[in-house]
Amino acid sequence: MTTPNVLIIAEAANPEWVSVPLVGWSLATALQRKTGGHIVTQVRNRDAFLRAGMREGEDFTAIDSEAVAKPFHDLSNLIRGGEGKGWTTNTAIATLSYFYFEHLVWKQFGDAIKSGTYDIIHRVTPLSPTSVSFIAPKIAKAGAKFIMGPINGGIPWPKGFDAERRREKEWLSYVRNAYKAMPGRAGMLKAASAIIAGSHHTRSEYPQNAQDKCFYIPENAIDPERFSLHRTGEITGDSPVRACFIGRMVPYKGPDMLIEAAAPILRHGILHLDMIGDGPLMPELKAMAEREGVTDAITFHGWQDHKKVQEIAVKSSLLTFPSVREFGGGVVLEAMALGVVPLIVDYGGPGELLVEGTGFKVPLGTREEIIAQFGATLSALVSDPGALPAIGDAARTRVMDKLTWDKKADQVLDIYDWALGERTDKPAAF
After folding, report:
1. 218 vs 66, 197, 395, CA distance in Å?
2. What is the spatial distance between Cα 178 and Cα 369, in angstroms, rounded to a whole number?
3. Chain segment 158-198, per-residue pLDDT in tens
């Protein structure tokens, strides 16, 4: 099969950042290595692209949409009360500024698309299903294939966690489904040749007439060069089992639930917790540790750079992560890549990433139910930890076999072939 000419739109793509920009960079560059495609990104990412060795004009084009993007970014921070909260509000405002970015993309590349230079235009980011592409119908009219994804987001807040929802200033999430009536959405879905959904929930949000061109591929993956370490801690009878939490110290990620669930085990001296990350809950967590009498059994590391996070995490046998609202669950994959066994709540991205024999799930329930289930499972694992090393190795193998960015690019290429009519069977993708 011939290699298609691909224009890769990744408005958010940056190897030096985390979350969506890192996903955008990782998938866009993996696809570029496979196809020789050209990446289009926003100008704020330009310097990072250059530092990574990318050649401007050949490998990528930076679109300067700052005249609109910066005022909208400032407005978003003002409305949401600063960075780290009100993500639904942030996404909604970013969607408005994206329209201008896409307008400039068409202005620069529209003639090339209409002349047939590109077989496929793949919009990698934005990841949000609320982001409409107004150039999708133009691309389809020009005879090229428009592909979007991995699209992910919109996992509902679970019942019983409304207090956490309010603390995160997620006011707009109460009316989030209004995005389905946005102008241009129906035209975009009709024009799309393929839609890559990053979660089963997100795929379920698309109408029935779009399901035949939807594919499920998890949003996140692993770069083996970034996760080159492997679990080093040995489990012995005379030292506590080590477990870690990695993430922002915010209510919905559940670091307080973890400490409450683990407190009885921590007091017995058979478990040690490494809490890696920072956030508004940190003072409350330290006070809780002191109140529970477990300060000697918990190390609060605060924010650490990427390399240091790995160095701390590989000393653990378990990732203990009771988050109740994760879209992609990248931290779970990162732990698996290190050979660290995840213990998670079976909801959203993390629940979809774990298969039998690679980690442990507790069912979603009320706060009290999660704490009880998490504590019981953790107690059982710590009391009899002999199976953890083999499970960690199985988790690492699964990631390296199916969940690297290189493997994900191969899965996307199968979708390209299907969209271009070079295969009649619909690829399983993942």
Report:
1. 31, 7, 16
2. 32
3. 888 777 767 766 655 555 666 677 889 999 999 999 999 99
Give CA torsion, residues 413, 415, 416, 418, to 10 deg: 130
> Does the bond joining 126 to the residue before it have cis omega, within 30 degrees of 0?
yes
Report how far residue 361's alpha carbon sits from residue 343's, in angstroms, rounded to the nearest whole number: 6
**CA 110 to CA 102: how far, in whole Å?**
11
- The number of folded domains in the chain is 2
Q: Do 176 and 323 belong to one domain?
A: no
pTM as predicted: 0.91
Residue 193 falls inside a structural domain: yes
Instruction: Answer yes or no: do 273 and 349 share one domain.
Output: yes
Residues 6+ apart with CB under 8 A from 424: none
Q: CA nearest 253: which of 333, 156, 168? A: 168
**Separation between Cα atoms, residue 43 and residue 92, nearest integer Å:** 20
Model confidence pLDDT, tens digit, residues 137-154:
999 999 999 999 999 987
Q: Confirm if 116 and 204 have CB atoms less than 8 A apart.
A: no
List, in sequence order, every residue forming a beta bridge with 120; answer none if it has no partner: 6, 145
